[in-house]
Amino acid sequence: MNAARGCPIALQKIMPTNLHLIRHAEVESRYQGVFGGRIDMDISPRGHEQAATLAQHLARKKFDAIYTSPMKRVHQTLTPCLKNGVPKPVVIHDFREVDFGDWTGLTFAEVQQRFGARASAWLDEFHAGRIPNAESPAGYRARIEPCIRDILQRHDGQCVAVFCHGGVIRQLLSILLDLPLPKTAGFEIEYASITEVEVQPHRAEVQLLNFTPWRDLKP
Length: 219
Known about the structure:
With 219 residues, the chain is of the alpha/beta class. The protein has helices spanning 45-58, 72-78, 108-115, 122-127, 137-154, 166-177; strands at 17-23, 65-68, 90-91, 159-164, 194-200, 203-211. Helix content is 30%, strand content 16%. β5 and β6 form a beta hairpin. The radius of gyration is 19 Å and the shape is globular.
């Protein structure tokens, strides 16, 4: 029987969109343990090793699109992946890291001394607007959310990689999982890590969190 004679039409299977959220590799030594934010720094020699191992792991994936932050540390992490014949990366300027205002360039210890804030509590401090001259929490979300919504609309049911920053990944998880930004402090987002999120029409699920294919590299 066919539809014209009354047989019900099978519902089309809805394919989820698969997002790979990838943080840049380890930064150069002078910026480790520092609130780098908008500083456009390089990655370290170890960071280049991490990026190479990351590229080897991602070579088995077939991406329909790749998006990237404009910052050097992200582009240097992405470069080895370009040898895999991936789609041409699209730069999204609003995927740059959070602006830490007066904390920018300060070490974790200096922020503790000058502002009485622990580095591990930066999400709470940021969310509460207690980082002097930093971008506002609402402004941060407002520059990132339209970008990810547009990506999801353009690549419905496809596999997409987003190379960016730890703070950006946290904001993306906050948006996709409908969590307050400070709650993402419970997720570790290491250098050159992969966090995979499956996005369906009415919900998102984390399939992989903070996977680091370079873990066995010698220190």
